[in-house]
Fold this sequence. Notes:
The protein is α/β, with parallel strands linked by helices and 231 residues long.
Amino acid sequence: MxxxxxxxxxxxxxxxxxxxxAVAAAALAAGRSVAVLKPAQxxxxxxxxxxxxxxxxxxxxxxxxxxxxxxxxxxxATAARRSGLPPVRPAEVAEAAxxxxxxxxxxxxxxxxxxxxxxxxxxxxxxxxxxxxEAPVLVVASAGLGTLNTTELTARELRxxxxxxLGVVLGSWPNEPDLASRCNLADLPVxxxxxxxxxxxxxxGRLPVAEFRTTAGSxxxxxxxxxxxxx
Length: 231
């Protein structure tokens, strides 16, 4: 695995933060030092826990860094504009990730929402961060109906920008998967043209942290430091 991995979702609420925590936990279990970088945290007030804090809570001894925080639960560019706070820009994110990479074995850069959610009014996105870092991108997708379209659109955009799509992880695999979810296990690698690299069980973020850390590797494929294999 590259020293920097950019993690995006096909949209919001697809399990991106818990997946990031699982990747971090697997890396820590393998003896690697890990940093988690959240460029823009929205919808969280000062003093509240953000996504980077949640990754640290679940995974363990990671270095968690948040570059900007905006109180309203909106796209970062919109939230920054409405709050009157300065936006975070791709070059700043890449610079911060580079500094963390000099001191850690693995840096996980977790975006906000999907790949093309804007950080600033100039149109900077997580895709621009990945380009500046020359880092692979892991896409977290939902399991059920509709995921084929959003996953293929994300994968196509990555290819159009000549960015390296590492693979796809299902961020919340249902305890009782329906027909669409079961079929998507086979169809997602086809539309993404990259392998399925894991399936994080639904509700994993509510597990006791000791259990989360010891089982996270079983949800991820060997490419992500785990033991999971697609059924």
